[in-house]
Amino acid sequence: MWTIYLKEILELARDRKTFVFTVLIPIFAMPLIFAAFGYFSSSMFDKARRAQLPYAVFGQEYAPELAQRFAREKGFREVRLGSEAEIRQAIDQDIIKFALVIPPGYQDRLDDRRQAEVALHYNSAVMVDLIRKRVQAVVEAQNAELRESALSALNLNQQQLRFALHPIRLDEHSTAGKREQMGALVGGMLPYLLLMGCLMAAMYPAIDLGAGEKERGTLETLLLAPVPRSSIVLAKFFVLFTVGLVSSLLMVGSMSALLFIAGSTPPGHPDPTGQTGLADMAAMMQSIGAGDLAMVALMLAPTAAMFAAILLSLSIYAKSYKEAAGLISPLMLLSLLPTMVALLPGVELNWMWAMVPLTNVSLAMKELVKGTMDYRMFAVILASTTISAGALLALCRWWFNREQVLFRN
């Protein structure tokens, strides 16, 4: 068995594609993509919050104070349009970002102590609705001024005025530390990156070890060797297990090193990127103990075994390299679903979710990063994942012993 294992490892090591998927992508590509996405998304959100918004306003003579407030506000620039009928076309052509239409009875309703309305026209077909939030902030400032003006006419003192405006005020005290706050953000994406990296690294070698050998005609030669089929299956399985696990561990190490380097700005010195997110993430990584990292590595082992058994089974079943690629590609989508379940609101690590494959690993990794892991569940997660991996390996071994599977062509 180990002779076959070493032979396959040596052949994969000589293959440039395997080297790229197993070493280069986990060490360099994925961490750099993760860091670049975080930096550019943060920069784009910051740019969108500060970007100048051209707008048009109709009926400003009915609400001069509101119109003047928008004119004074930084980040807003008024554009003159001929009529209200031009609003939609102007927004579609990006001449303006939004338009306000103030009705004639606006001031009369306010004077009668009734609620007035202002129509907001804008394109809401965006992922993050920053335009409405920025407009709402200006309108809310005008609302606060009108409330104070209306209540001051009642000759209320400062205490009474605060009570009338905000009878109950929440004094927030978060019990979450910096690690828990940052871990809630990072912990959701970390399992996805690690598990998908493990699957992608073992995907190409799996196709080659099964369907590839069928096409080359070397599988028949291997079956004629005086080696039990179980040993052949285990040798190929351990090759895929090694590739997937090593790839995930390399990704953990490279991403940790990247965060340490990015967050190594000395105290008192500004972050050269102008952001504090990377420094906070580095501080969070530094607070994660060696025991937690060891637990992440231990959970990756049975997960890599699950992927290795499934990939090898599909590759052995396929008639050709092309068919194996077609069978294995949907596996990424199927593996993505239980990983994404861990991101849903209300899904927390408990004894029930600790028994669900992949979802339990994703939830446990998130809790480990946050520092809120219930270590009593670790053994349950490890045991359930290991049992699932063992069952899949047994299925793969049975699958390999079937002549109608090995020689479908």
From TrEMBL:
GO molecular function, one term: ABC-type transporter activity
Domain ABC-2 type transporter transmembrane: 17-392
Pfam families linked: ABC2_membrane_3 (PF12698)
Keywords tagged on the record: Membrane, Transmembrane, Transmembrane helix
Regions that span the bilayer: 20-40, 184-207, 237-261, 293-318, 324-344, 375-400
Subcellular location, record wording: Membrane
Main localization category: membrane
Highest taxon listed in the record's lineage: Bacteria
Alphabetized InterPro entries for the sequence: ABC2_TM
CC per GO annotation: membrane
Membrane-protein topology: Multi-pass membrane protein
Protein name: ABC transporter permease subunit
